[in-house]
Amino acid sequence: MMESQFDLWQRIHRDLFGLHSADDVRMVGLWDGSLSGYTFEELRDASFAIAADPTERARFRANHLAMIHEFVHARRADTAARERARQDREYASAACANCHGVGVVRVPNADFIVDGAFTREFFVEVACACGVGAARFNAIKCALSVTMNSLSALSATPRLIPLAASPARPVDRARWKRQIWRPLPASSA
């Protein structure tokens, strides 16, 4: 804020509260260093808010500096929250075309594809390649490594590979579910 703007705000603030004595002018002038990061509009609005404040605290000039800081910080926090909400709305409206912002995509289960054709119509859900899907996959991977109670490199990032399906060996669902929650042995990594 330029010097002339700060002087103008000082005059506005002193006129609002009748701070015309030499001590009052000197006190408000000393606030320059503390209020240097604020704009003229923020200071003006803070002064008007203090003038409109019916509480006992606003009556005393010694409280004005703290109240100005509180008002400007609250206004900036509110502005930042509105900006974050606007960005979230924009992100949601520009959601991924594959998962529509959910992060999960339904795809045919590879266990039931034989010679390029479906033997049954079963689908599985996999993490999408978008940012939301990557975040969900990382959260799941982190949860799996925490539940395994192991810090080895192999189990810290488990591999979730189902058994290969073939017409000669039908899929044993119970065995497949047991294997999918365990990391592969070190020899097959």
Describe the overall structure:
This protein is mostly helical. It has two domains: 3-93, no CATH class; 104-188, no CATH class. The protein is built from seven helices and four strands, in the order ααααββββααα. The protein has helices spanning 3-17, 22-30, 40-52, 64-93, 131-147, 153-156, 173-180; strands at 104-108, 113-114, 117-118, 123-127. A two-stranded antiparallel ribbon has the order 1-4. Strands 2-3 form a two-stranded antiparallel ribbon. The model is unreliable at 146-164 (pLDDT under 50).
Comma- or semicolon-separated keywords:
two-stranded antiparallel ribbon; 51% helix
In short:
The protein has helices spanning 3-17, 22-30, 40-52, 64-93, 131-147, 153-156, 173-180, and strands at residues 104-108, 113-114, 117-118, 123-127.
